[in-house]
Amino acid sequence: MKNWTYEESGVTIDGGNRWVKRIGELMSQRPKDPNVVGGIGGFSGLYDMGGGSLLAACCDGVGTKLEIAEAAGKLKGLGQDLVAMSVNDLITCGARPILFLDYLACGKLDSDRLIPVVEGVMDACLESGCALLGGETAEMPGVYPPNGFDLAGFAVGTVDREDLIDGSCVERGDLMIGLASSGIHSNGYSLVRKALEKELAASLHEKIDQLGETLSDALLKPTRLYPRPVLSALKTGKIKAMAHITGGGLEENIERALPKGMLPEIDFDSWNRPAIFDYISNRGVDESEMRRVFNLGIGYTLVVAPENRDEVTEKLREKGETPVVFGTVA
Question: Is Manganese given among the entry's keywords (predicted)?
Fold first, then answer.
């Protein structure tokens, strides 16, 4: 069986990292707004509004999950995916989401087909506690095929400077607490489509015993929204760093949240993986690639001192979470 990689599916994580680095180099050559806090490469950008208040902002999309949703005829979940990918990034610095904007580009505007996506955005904004402030819909024949479309979302939040979570106080030996994902969430789908090419063509709507559900249901579970449990846990004042686990997997995303020179030590056997990940792995994606691309069942991570574990996990449980300690900072 061929071993598939993300790069062979057309996506290069290293290339993306080089791209971000190049943008940073270009930005460093230009005058910097003195109100911009920090540089690029974080989960969100920060802007000092004065009076101790910071604005946090970020944008994201849902990637090629669109293709599977289109093939399955299940589009509404994409709205939640779109909101989640931005607000989950936003809260990693301690910010509270306050507003969201969406952009939908399509080859032909079919309102009956696409309105469920917008309804999904509305519902997810309500669940995340932010206002859907506006958006843009662009009909672009010739750029997209008639049934083709793409999505982008933009989230803004606020955080007091004294409450900013920047990872600077993380110490070796701190614990990593994980919140469960619903499944793949919204990254890695180019690799999914390559590794499961035959299955997607033949059995998208058939129940699969290994999964306990249809392949389309397993692949299209909406990205979880983490603002409510995370904002509750932040009230303890004991959170040192946080990471939203997207492209790059657990190791790369957690490392982004830690001080330079520190690394996450992860016990990959400390939680139960959703069945969809073994299903993908068994079709030619080795373990190292799985860890580099997918969340593997942990969608969000909080870093705390060992003595604060119980207080933080209790707050998370109050919001319906089942937190798991899955590693330490080294």
Answer: no
